[in-house]
Each structure stands twice: as structure tokens, then as C-alpha cells.
Amino acid sequence: MDIQIVKCHGSSNDFVLIDELKHQYHFSENERVQIARLLCDREGSIGADGILFTMPSHQAHARMRMFNPDGSEAEMCGNGLRCVGRYVCEQLDNTEIVIETKEANLSVKQMDDMFENIPSFEVAIEPVRLRPASLPLNIAKAQHVNQPLDPLSENLLFTAVAVPNPHLIAVVNRIEDEQLNLIGRQANENKFLLPNGVNVSFVQLLARNKIFVRTYERGVGLTNACGTAMSASSLTTVLLKENNLDEEITVFNRGGFVICTVTQSEGKYTIQLRGNATYEYDTTVSVDLQNGSVSEIATRTNYVNEQEAYEQMKKYAQSQII
Ligand SMILES: N[C@H](CCC[C@H](N)C(=O)O)C(=O)O
């Protein structure tokens, strides 16, 4: 099957966006899984941290279904939602829309460029749940905030939160990729403790309202950034009284930075996640599901200016975390 794709990223967390609004694609559930595995494969012709199926919706402007490179479907994807939001805003010539996701219809708003020539969007990350059963995390407690979590680590303290995909967040003095990778792998192998797997993040407090987040993503591994994880990490710093509600928190990551604001109304948290939505290129691929192969059958249309602008934003971010 031939599929037109838009390669895009949020904070260098990169995705393949497939437009099922414009194109009459009809994928079965099994095909969606296979397409995710084939197109995300970094050894293949494309390679990405996930697929964003952008589909018609009966209850919103469009619907986003996000699949990880291992073929698992995630409840939510913050960096991906900004990319889908931008794409649909442009299709509808609109600056404020609603996107249907697995558990909620979420608002997406175009914002002023947060950096020179960087298309910027803000998405609502919700519902937010602190009950371990909502991840699920099989421990008999009402909440797990800044507590040890045997057998993942003897010295780290974790906070469990679902936004609504599952996250474990640990505030650390120094982020060690090797330790994060090991704990991320062990957490996702422990199907008794975490039956659906989990995204694991380490958070470094750089200053008031300024953090650095590194994430081992469920279904992927270490990525440049994870939007829901940066949101969950911002919430965790508020719960730990390191930052305040309603104040902008700049969240640096390997791929750049985003701005998160944690709000609470009637006891419920929402996290506003603002960041870039950058296009890399358009192309067309031919996917042969029978023999599990993908070949590119068009010349890429590269968004050179966007890429160059984003490199400046990334350089700025890196200068802030030295
Ligand atoms: N790996 C995640 C989904 C992608 C989330 C991430 N890319 C984001 O921007 O939120 C999960 O399985 O929950």
C-alpha cells in the first residue's frame, strides 16, 4: 500500500503523521500495528518515535491515535498532539481546535512563536489521575507521591501519575542515562507491578520554574523528549512544592524546551503544554505488510527553513542547561 506521510516533531520527539482525513486510507487494527513497527524502525527508510494516525471524528475536529514503535497504542502523546493540532489547524484554516484522543477531547491552540520562526501550539494534558490503579501500578495505596518503589530502586523516590498514559517520575540530583535506561527496562518488564508498562522520567531541578527532564518511554526507550512526561514531571514538582500552580515552568529536554503550566480546578489538575510543532519533510512510502518491508517512492519535500529555525531553538535550550 502507498501512504503519504508528514515527518514532524515536538521537542525533537519525532513522528510520522498519516492523514486519514484527506486520504481514503482504511487500515485494520493489525495493519496499524504493523505500519507503526515498520515506519518507526530506525533501521528502516523512515524511523520515528511513533505514528500519529490523524482520523475523522464524530465529536471533535479530528481524532488522534498514537502508536509506539513496538506497535503498542498509547492513551496520549503530548508532543504528537501539538503536531496533529498544527496539521489540522492548517487543514481547517483555524487557530483553535479540539482533537479526540483515547480518553478525552483535548483543546489545541496556536500560540505566538515561542522562539523565532517556531510554529508553537498549546495543548491541554488531561485527565490527570494520581491513583496508582489508574496507571495501573499494583500497589495498595491511594496515591504514590515521592515514595520508594521496590524493586525498581533502593534509593530513588517515585511519583506515579497518569495523564492519562502512565508515568513514574523521580527527582534526581544528576541524570544518568544508564540508570534511567535500566530502571525503564525493568519497570516495563515487571508485568505484575505495571501490567500495561510505564514511561519513566528523571527530573533535575535547575532553578525555580526551570527543570530538565529525561525519559525512558514505554514502547520506545530513551527519547529526546516526551510531552506527557514533561507535563507529569511539572505536576510532580508542584506536588513536591518545588514549583507553584499557575506559574509557567520551563522544561528543558535533550531536544529543546517546552513550557508547562499546572492548574487545578474543583480538585482536578490540568497541565497546559506549550511547545513547537515542526515539520521535517513530506514523502510517500510503499508498505508491503506481507514481507514486512517499506520503501520510499517519492522525492522528499524538506521543510528546510523550519529545520534551521528549530536548530537555533535547540542551541538556545542547550546553552541554558550547561
Ligand atoms: N510512549 C508513550 C506514548 C508517547 C508519549 C510521548 N511521545 C509524548 O510526547 O507524550 C506511552 O506509551 O505512553
Distance between the termini: 46 Å
Heterogens: 2,6-diaminopimelic acid
What is the percent of helical residues? 10-25%
Whole-number tally of structural domains? 2
Q: Which architecture name of the largest domain does CATH use?
A: Roll
Unreliable segments of 5+ consecutive residues: none
Rg, please?
19 Å
Please describe the biggest sheet, giving its number of strands, its sense, and whether it closes into a barrel.
20 strands, mixed
Name the beta content range: 35-45%
Can you write the helix and strand succession as a string? Answer: EEHEEEHEEEEEEHEEEHEEEEEEH
What global shape is seen? globular
Structure annotation, total helices: 5
- How much is the average pLDDT? 97
Q: What's the total count of β strands?
A: 20
CATH-assigned homologous superfamily of the largest domain: Diaminopimelate Epimerase, Chain A, domain 1
CATH class of the largest domain: Alpha Beta
Q: Which class do the helix and strand fractions yield? A: alpha+beta
GO molecular function: diaminopimelate epimerase activity
Binding site for substrate: 13, 68, 78-79, 165, 199, 217-218, 227-228
Enzyme class: isomerase
EC number: 5.1.1.7
